[in-house]
Structure formats: structure tokens, C-alpha cells
Design a protein that fits this description.
Elements lengths: L12 H5 L17 H8 L3 E8 L4 E6 L4 E6 L6 E7 L2 E5 L2 H8 L8 E3 L7 E8 L12 E4 L7 H8 L7 H13 L3 H5 L6 E9 L6 E4 L8 E6 L3 E7 L19 E7 L23
Antiparallel strand pairs: 1-13, 2-12, 3-11, 3-13, 4-5, 4-9, 4-12, 6-7, 7-11, 8-9, 9-10
Length: about 290
């Protein structure tokens, strides 16, 4: 949030502000998913697993490359925080910042979740979204953001002076430790910024502060993904529930979310292959 200006405006202030913006990362050459192939594969899906994520908790799941998974609202409006890793290498994980730079603040069908350096490849592609009708509202809010970082006990301690252990960061940490057998504090280092599934967020028009509002998600809504590589995922049901009032407490009404894993007919993926890591030489000028 910018403070009240203390420096007088220069004579050419208006001209400087009037300079037109330039998109940082033009995406005309960005490799695009084959959505026709995805549509054909979707018609053949068979569910192979269901995982219920209890309120104010997290669960892990695995998805083989070439399979699909859904995050589904099953009882009431509930936001989920999603982490993704390469199944065999926790050092390759979802990079929300670069995903935001490439696709925008909120994700939709055809957008991809990219991994961090030095890999920088698609981990998953969004293939269906029952909330795509929402778009952006009068406040500038939209769903499925890659702006927020995840609610965490450190910020809670900083701003409120108390400890709360069922925020999304802690939920994801416990779930990853249980899945991998890593010590809790080691697992914590692998937890990263999230895709805020179903969360409705934006920036205020006056101070440009990050805001949240009641999610439009309802039972039966889902966000669906195609796994581009072998994935280990973790999903936390946010203690903020639909994030209409607050998070990092037990005050909000919270509901479970369901993760569904699907297998397509392999014939529909003929010719598809998992994307390779970045071809950059990693010479860094030396």
C-alpha cells in the first residue's frame, strides 16, 4: 500500500503516468495445451479414487502423468489451498509467481500450473471449471487466484499475537510430513505458495490491497486438471471456509472438499508426451 506522497509532483508527472503499459511476458509463443485432445480424453474418464479432505485439515494425493483430477465442493462453500510437486522430486514444485506472470492473477480453463526453476514446465493444465461464469465482478474479484500466499501461523503471530495451528500452511506441512516420512520442520521447507481454489479475491481499487470475499462455490462445483507430469499434490481446506469474513481461526463455518482421480482411455492420448524440463543450458553467462 503506497503511503501519502511526501515528494512534490514534477512538472511532467501527468505525462509520466500516461505512458501506456506493456505486457511483461507476451505469450504468443507459449506452448499451448491440446484442448481438443483433452476434450476427447474427458469423454472416456473413469474414476479410480476419491479422497475426502476434512475441514481445517489437508490430505495428499498422487496423479500419474496423463490422468485427470478434480477438486469438488461436496457439502458447502469452501476454499482450498493447493500445492503440487513432481512425484519423485520435491525440489520441483508449483511456481505461483511465474504462473501469475504468464496467465494472470486468476486462472481458468487452458491455463497451466508451471513448476519453478530450473524446470519451468507445465505440471498441470486446467481442463474444466464450473465457476468460469463468474469472470470478474464489480469489485475486480475473481476465483482461483495465484495472488495470495496461503494463511500461515507466522503472519497470524505477527498480526494477532497468538498461535493457530490449522491454517493452510500448517495443514499442508502436516500432510506432506505424513506422506513422505520427512520430519515436520523439513517437510515445511517444501510447502509453497498455492493456487487458491474457489477463493474469490482481488485488489481494492483505492489502496490496491489484497481482498477476499464470499466464494461463489456451491456443492457440485469443481475445478478439473490434466496431470502433465507425475504429481504429488496436497490440498488444505482453508479455516476461513468460504473466506467471507476471516481466516486463521475456528470462527468460520468450514466444509470438506473431495479430490477425485480419473483415468482416461489411453487411445485418446495417442501422440501426447509429458513435457520436458526447460532446455536452458544453466550456464548463467559463465
Amino acid at each position: 500500500m503506497k503511503p501519502v506522497a511526501q515528494t512534490p509532483s514534477p512538472p511532467d508527472a501527468a505525462a509520466r503516468k500516461a505512458v501506456k503499459p506493456v505486457i511483461c511476458y507476451p505469450t504468443a509463443t507459449l506452448p499451448q495445451p491440446d484442448m481438443a485432445m483433452v476434450a476427447a480424453a474427458r469423454d472416456t474418464l473413469e474414476m479410480t479414487q476419491k479422497i475426502i479432505v476434512p475441514p481445517r485439515d489437508a490430505r495428499t494425493f498422487t496423479v500419474p502423468a496423463g490422468h485427470f483430477f478434480k477438486i469438488v465442493s461436496v457439502e458447502g462453500p469452501q476454499v482450498g489451498d493447493l500445492n503440487l510437486w513432481a512425484r519423485q522430486d520435491l525440489s520441483e514444485k508449483f511456481y505461483s509467481g511465474k504462473t501469475r506472470a504468464l496467465h494472470g492473477t486468476h486462472l481458468g480453463v487452458g491455463d497451466r500450473l508451471w513448476s519453478g526453476f530450473p524446470y519451468l514446465r507445465p505440471m498441470a493444465t486446467i481442463t474444466y471449471d464450473t465457476l468460469d461464469w463468474y469472470g470478474f465482478d464489480a469489485y475486480g474479484g475473481g476465483v482461483h487466484d495465484v495472488i495470495g500466499t496461503r494463511c500461515d501461523p507466522y503472519t497470524g503471530r505477527l498480526l494477532g499475537g497468538t498461535d493457530y495451528h490449522h491454517c493452510c500452511h500448517s495443514n499442508l506441512t502436516r500432510a506432506l510430513a505424513a506422506e513422505t516420512g520427512l520430519p515436520l520442520l523439513e517437510a515445511e521447507h517444501h510447502v509453497h505458495d498455492v493456487l487458491n481454489v474457489f477463493m474469490c479475491t482481488g485488489f481494492t481499487k483505492d489502496t490496491h490491497q489484497y481482498f477476499m470475499k464470499a466464494s461463489p462455490v456451491r456443492p457440485g462445483d469443481f475445478l478439473e486438471f490434466f496431470a502433465e507430469i507425475d504429481l504429488l499434490g496436497a490440498l488444505s481446506t482453508c479455516p476461513g471456509g468460504d473466506c467471507s469474513t476471516e481466516h486463521s481461526s475456528d470462527a468460520a463455518a468450514c466444509y470438506p472438499l473431495e479430490i477425485q482421480i480419473f483415468t482416461p482411455d489411453p487411445e485418446t492420448l495417442s501422440g501426447w508426451s509429458s513435457p520436458k524440463p526447460s532446455a536452458y543450458s544453466r550456464g548463467h553467462g559463465l
